[in-house]
Amino acid sequence: TPSPYTLLADALAKQHSVPMVAIQRVRMAHGGAETAFQVLIEQNGKGAVRREVLSPVRHKGLVVLDTGEKQMRFDPVSSVCEVQSSPLGSGQKIVDRRREASIRANYRLSVAGTAMVGSRKATVIVAKPVNHGSLARTYWLDTERNVVLKMRVIGENGSTHYERELLFPRFDVDLPPESFAARFGCGVRMVQHPECKLFTSLGALMKEV
Question: Which residues contact 24 (CB under 8 A, 6 or more apart)?
Answer without folding.
Answer: 37, 38, 39, 40, 41, 51, 164, 165, 166, 167, 205
